[in-house]
Write a structure and sequence with these properties.
The protein is of the alpha+beta class and about 130 residues long. The chain has 3 helices and 8 strands. A hairpin with a 2-residue loop joins strand 2 and strand 3.
Length: about 130
């Protein structure tokens, strides 16, 4: 099955698993998705992720993070910003702040896929992939 936006599919799977209070979610792997999962781990939105291979294809198993019980969600929202039909770019001065700095913007730069805080430190702009809060 051909997918037009694999990044949006990954974010939707995470959002749906979070709402359904699942412990883990699996998504097909790619370099971009691995980089996004690494950012989610570093920013504290997920517990862990690991890449599993069954035959030819690889999958990313993401372990979701909750508070004291599963009613306290760490991820309150995920939104895809730059889509295949409309790419959204931001330069260094205009990098977005999610909820006034409480959330994280995922930016694809020439230095790799990084969080907005790191992009500000490096002084680079790029394509705004998604917001997470």
């Amino acid at each position: 099955m051909m997918m037009s936006d694999p990044i949006a599919d990954m974010l939707t799977r995470i959002r749906n698993a979070n709402v359904a209070k699942h412990d883990t979610v699996e998504v097909p792997a790619s370099k971009m998705k691995k980089a996004i999962a690494e950012i989610l781990l570093n920013e504290g939105y997920i517990k862990a992720f690991d890449v599993t291979a069954d035959g030819v294809k690889e999958n990313i198993r993401i372990t979701l993070k909750y508070g004291k019980d599963k009613n306290e969600k760490v991820i309150s929202g995920i939104k895809r910003i730059s889509k295949p039909g409309l790419r959204v770019y931001a330069d260094t001065e205009n990098l977005p702040k999610v909820l006034g700095g409480l959330g994280t913007a995922i930016i694809s730069t020439n230095k790799g896929v990084i969080a907005d805080r790191d992009a500000r430190k490096l002084g680079v702009g790029g394509e705004v992939i998604a917001f997470i809060w």
